[in-house]
Amino acid sequence: MRTPTRPRSSGAALRRRGPAPLFLLPALALLGALVLYPIGWSVVRSLYDAPGTGFVGLGNYRTAFTDDATLTALRNSAIWVAVAPALVTGLGLVFAVLTEKVRWGTAFRLLVFMPMAISFLAAGITFRLVYEQDPARGVLNAPPPPPPDPFHPAPSSPGARPRPGGPAAAADGAVRAAPAAPGSAVAVPLVGLKPATLPAAAKPAAAPAAGDGVHGTVWLDVTPGGGTPGTVDPGERGLPGVTVRLLDGQRQIATATTAADGSFAFPGHPSGTVELPASNFAAPYRGLAWLGPGLVTPAIVGAYLWIWAGFAMVVIAGGLANLPRETLEAARMDGAGEWQIFRRITVPQLAPVLGVVLVTMVINVMKIFDLVFVVAPGPVQQDAGVLALRLWLVSFGGGNDQGLGSALGVLLLLLVVPAMVLNVRRFRRSTR
């Protein structure tokens, strides 16, 4: 009886047809030219000074760990690694679970994933406007107007101040004129307001005129191109709606409100001290400094979450769709609540997928550059700096020290490699 011959393996057949490694040479050549050679040259270059002519050994690495700006970048990079990947993974998990329970889950996933189609440059410009401190431009600093408060009315002349040489500003922010003699007129010239911000009801200011009681005028003492300080010039407008008090020492004896031409009067009161309370000049809301030194890093992390939460949601939703439904139904039949099922069954079974997303985000945030560069204004860019941004600034953004920049690049590579190795191991375990 003839013994059947074993079929030859595909590898043997391939070797018989020709040397297979030859087909790998183009890919290996590209890998060496685009990856291995730059890494090796960066390691060598990091051992030389800025011009590249003097060998300094590990001097650039010592400089990297003693420079304040670099230490700030390392601290911010650590904050990014500790916060951003966990938040992105958590939001992606929440979105993936919720989209299975809402009616328009597909449309919701599309909306959440849509920011992934936007470049970091465009997203940075968008969030630069969102975080704008001016309430007229920044979305986050433009809340809906509060309802009118009869006990604390809006200031009539926000930001105004007395003209030097005129009435004095008290310690509490009020404006207090000199005591008025019987039948005298009190002039209260103010500055600090832009003519465009004057109330629409403002009319040309009335010159202070004496009369029965205490009279006076409150006006914006600004004339484009000249004018006499402390005098009502043609074209200057009164400030309507300003609260004026008449004091006898520290006791209030009367109150009035300025007319459209800024005039006021206290008939029947021959003398007293005219005071404009500080409530007339309360500064308007200027917005929260989202891009200030204290909040710039959390603000940029928020922009990062907006972009990458959709990616995490899609990956986790794919893992969620492959979960065995029998365990979930069995838990519901045993009386487990949705929170218990989520915490004790869904999350443990999704642990491999969550780990892949988390490690991928760690690698991603270690290399974050363009979002920080675009969103952070120049004066606070060092406060928001990360390692990749510091590398660019040192090498090409004005520092012109490519020795130190190469050292920072090698340091960044050493920090990213462990996460890459962990991700590759997870991938190999999942494919077995």
From TrEMBL:
Q: Which residue ranges does the record assign to the ABC transmembrane type-1 domain?
A: 74-423
Q: Where is this region: Disordered?
A: 139-175
Concerning Gene3D superfamilies, the annotation shows:
Immunoglobulins (2.60.40.10), MetI-like (1.10.3720.10)
Q: InterPro entries from the entry?
A: Ig-like_fold (IPR013783), MetI-like (IPR000515), MetI-like_sf (IPR035906), UgpAE/MalFG_permease (IPR050809)
- Which membrane topology describes this protein? Multi-pass membrane protein
Q: Where in the cell is it found?
A: Cell membrane
UniProt lists compositionally biased (Pro residues) regions at 142-156
Signal sequence segment: none
Q: CDD domains under this entry? A: TM_PBP2 (cd06261)
Keywords carried by this UniProt record: Cell membrane, Membrane, Transmembrane, Transmembrane helix, Transport
Which ranges does the record mark as transmembrane? 20-39, 78-98, 110-131, 303-323, 350-369, 403-424
Cite the record's Low complexity compositional bias ranges: 157-175
Query: Is Lipid biosynthesis one of the keywords?
Result: no
> Which family would the database say this protein is a member of?
Belongs to the binding-protein-dependent transport system permease family.
The name of this protein is Sugar ABC transporter permease
